[in-house]
TrEMBL record:
The keyword Glycoprotein does not apply. Residues 34-72 form the RING-type domain. The chain crosses the membrane at residues 128-149. It holds the Pfam family zf-C3HC4_2. This is PUA-like domain-containing protein. InterPro entries: Lon_prtase_N, Lon_prtase_N_sf, PUA-like_sf, Znf_RING, Znf_RING/FYVE/PHD, Znf_RING_CS. Keywords: Membrane, Metal-binding, Transmembrane, Transmembrane helix, Zinc, Zinc-finger. Residues 127-331 form the Lon N-terminal domain. GO terms for molecular function: ubiquitin protein ligase activity; zinc ion binding. PROSITE patterns: LON_N, ZF_RING_1, ZF_RING_2.
């Protein structure tokens, strides 16, 4: 038989212990708050001056100012800060004693920063929400070298790097005195780029090698996310790929053969230094008709706003005809660009 008062004593002790644990957890949670986002610190990083922040918060702050957000002391380079400043003890504490809050924080970060930048063609066969980099004209299959220094694009590239490594590249519009109020601030057609290599420089800048993957058309411009553009886009594929009419296929093959022979003729008489530059950047003359149409549109020494038309055309045939007309125009004006080692093709 249980002694009188024992059960009550145990209950009181359990209640006191639970109350102490709850107060301790509340105090620990307040101590482990990031001073920038005021949430539970995630991937804690400690600065040389002794302050701790979420790594993503400190990265974004470092893009704009190289001082501690709390005490304004100078901070080291991002490479040193994020390599040696990781606080493993705080990570272990949050996982052990604040496991529920920790997992909620992970879900919040993934939803906020990564979800919109995981582009999966299988899950989105017709289009997707895409982060937009407004910069230059790139064709599918062609390389694009980027020097990233603006804070908003540093953030965009970091998020893409941990996501699917894909983002949209669109060239801007020529400056206009009075643009239409309903006009997009950038072109309607662009190219999905996939990051192949990314090098982080000591001061936070990035050197990026990316490559065009497929074309898209902007369906709707979405609100900006942390300073950079977002858009709902629809994928665009060449009609020739699914065109089964034999006569049209033969016509495309004929155009492909003529264009390839013409480019080989240019290369035969071209300046050697120019040939080496083209081969180093864009590779040799491609074999396939689709790749050849994009390759030719990339190397023709015309303004990108002129060459942009090739990105909007729905078929390989039309692109081959367009690039051929560009070459005809250059030849008629005796613009023998392939003989000039100083020709600008990039």
């Amino acid at each position: 038989m249980e002694a009188p008062g024992v059960s009550a004593t145990h209950s009181a002790g359990d209640a006191t212990g639970s109350d102490l644990l709850a107060r301790w957890s509340t105090r620990l949670h307040s101590e482990l708050q990031c001073a920038i986002c005021h949430n539970l610190v995630y991937r804690p990083t400690i600065t040389p001056c002794g302050h701790t922040f979420c790594r993503s918060c400190l990265e974004r702050g470092h893009d704009h100012s190289q001082v501690c957000p709390s005490c304004r002391q100078p901070l080291p380079s991002p490479v040193a800060l994020f390599t040696y400043g990781r606080h493993h003890l705080l990570t272990a504490l949050t996982r052990r004693w604040l496991s529920h809050e920790y997992h909620e924080r992970i879900l919040h970060v993934q939803t906020e920063e990564v979800h919109a930048h995981r582009i999966d063609y299988a899950q989105h066969p017709n289009g997707a929400l895409l982060p937009i980099f407004v910069c230059t004209l790139v064709f599918p299959g062609m390389p694009c070298y980027l020097h990233i220094f603006e804070p908003r694009y540093r953030l965009l590239l970091r998020r893409c790097w941990v996501g699917s490594r894909r983002f949209g590249m669109i060239c801007g519009r020529p400056s206009q005195p009075e643009p239409a109020p309903d006009q997009l601030p950038y072109r309607e057609y662009g190219t999905v780029l996939i990051i192949e290599k990314m090098r982080f420089l000591p001061d936070g800048r990035m050197m990026v090698l990316s490559r065009g993957e497929r074309r898209f058309r902007v369906v709707h411009a979405e609100p900006q996310l942390d300073g950079y553009n977002m858009a709902t886009v629809a994928w665009i594929d060449d009609l020739d790929i699914i065109d089964l009419q034999q006569r049209q296929q033969q016509y495309t093959e004929t155009l492909h053969h003529i264009m390839r022979q013409r480019l080989l003729h240019y290369r035969r008489f071209a300046d050697q230094a120019l040939c080496e530059r083209i081969a180093k950047v864009y590779g040799p003359i491609p074999e396939g008709a689709q790749a050849l149409s994009y390759w030719a549109a990339s190397i023709v020494p015309l303004d990108r706003y002129i060459r942009y038309e090739a990105l909007t055309l729905p078929s390989i045939r039309q692109r081959l005809l367009l690039t051929s007309s560009w070459l005809d125009t250059l030849d008629q004006h005796r613009n023998w660009w392939w003989l000039d080692s100083a020709c600008s093709i990039m």
